[in-house]
Design brief:
Helix content is 69%, strand content 2%. By secondary structure, the protein is mainly alpha-helical. The relative contact order is 0.22.
């Protein structure tokens, strides 16, 4: 992995208002995912995590297909299956295994390593080299989340840790491949979301009934929980997420996942929990990390003056250009 070694030539450049609007809309996705734990524990019947994952994906995917009425063509059939497996079908079971075998704080800290995994995969698949600016803030983001959610009860389980890292890696790979493949001509984020949710939901369908058996009884509270997870946390959030991945530099979109454990912590405080001074510091540190990742690195102007390729220049080639040019994650 290569990092920038050039001198800074000024303060970080602040993105324009339109990019901040895109960041805000994209951030709504991981923010909504931060409600998953409380919805699952308070509203859903226990012992059926795969059923919850399947309902979170398949109905929303079928609804998106009914709205857009566009099916994949050519190689997008297998691309949609791959993305659906990574972002939905493989991700959910691995996260559920991690949640069952690890304390929530450990699982959240493992998920916070995703920006670092994205940076590594971006080197191999996008030929985009991370700078010290975003690598440093990526590490600080993990530290911040760890300070917020880790406690004395943070016991490690080998299978749980492997599942947590595996789930984080699959989503990181999904982010990078979504950025690499972009969108086919005439296809919008809702269509891509429908393809992935449907593919992932269909992969989960036989697994759900094979492992968990018959569906649980659903009362009014559970119905509301499934509707929230599938509607807001599934279809709406995923559409905003894939839209943001297409518009933002990959090094800026990935750190937004830090919002999930932070929102979960805020919900915990609202439900009578409290944060210690150290946890409060970690919260501020993680929030600063995801905001700092949206800024261009301080040495951007120096690199551009010397005519060296940057991630911004790669973005201008458009998501449909298979020849992703070499650059840096600012």
């Amino acid at each position: 992995m290569h990092t920038s070694t050039e001198r800074a030539s000024g303060p970080p450049r602040i993105p324009h208002a339109r990019q901040w609007a895109t960041v805000a809309l994209t951030a709504l996705a991981p923010a909504s995912w931060g409600t998953t734990y409380v919805v699952t524990t308070e509203l859903l019947p226990p012992g059926h995590p795969l059923f919850a994952g399947m309902l979170r994906a398949l109905p929303g995917g079928l609804l998106a297909l009914a709205i857009t009425r566009v099916l994949p063509r050519g190689d997008w059939w297998w691309k949609a299956i791959v993305l659906g497996a990574l972002n939905i079908g493989a991700l959910y079971p691995l996260l559920f295994v991690a949640a069952e075998r690890l304390p929530g704080g450990v699982a959240a800290t493992l998920s916070a390593t995703q920006p670092l995994m994205v940076a590594g995969l971006a080197v191999a698949l996008l030929h985009v080299r991370p700078t010290a600016w975003r690598l440093t803030w990526g590490v600080l983001g993990v530290v911040g989340v760890g300070l917020v959610v880790l406690g004395p009860q943070a016991r490690l389980n080998a299978v749980g840790v492997l599942a947590g890292l595996g789930g984080t890696a699959t989503m990181a790979a999904g982010i990078v491949l979504t950025k690499r493949w972009g969108l086919p001509a005439g296809v919008g984020p809702l269509t891509l979301t429908g393809w992935q949710l449907t593919a992932g939901g269909l992969l989960l369908l036989p697994l759900t009934f094979a492992i968990e058996g018959a569906p649980p009884s659903i009362d009014a509270g559970a119905a509301g929980g499934y509707l929230w997870l599938g509607g807001v946390g599934g279809l709406v959030a995923s559409t905003l997420w894939f839209r943001g991945i297409g518009k933002l530099p990959v090094g800026a979109s990935a750190p937004l996942v830090l919002l999930s454990p932070l929102v979960a912590a805020v919900i915990g405080v609202a439900l009578s929990e409290s944060l210690s001074p150290l946890q409060t510091f970690g919260f501020v540190l993680a929030l600063a990390a995801l905001l700092a990742a949206q800024l261009n690195s301080p040495n951007l102007s120096g690199r551009m003056a010397r005519g060296r390729p940057t991630e911004a220049r790669s973005e201008k080639t458009g998501p449909r250009d298979d020849r992703v040019r070499e650059g840096r994650i600012r």
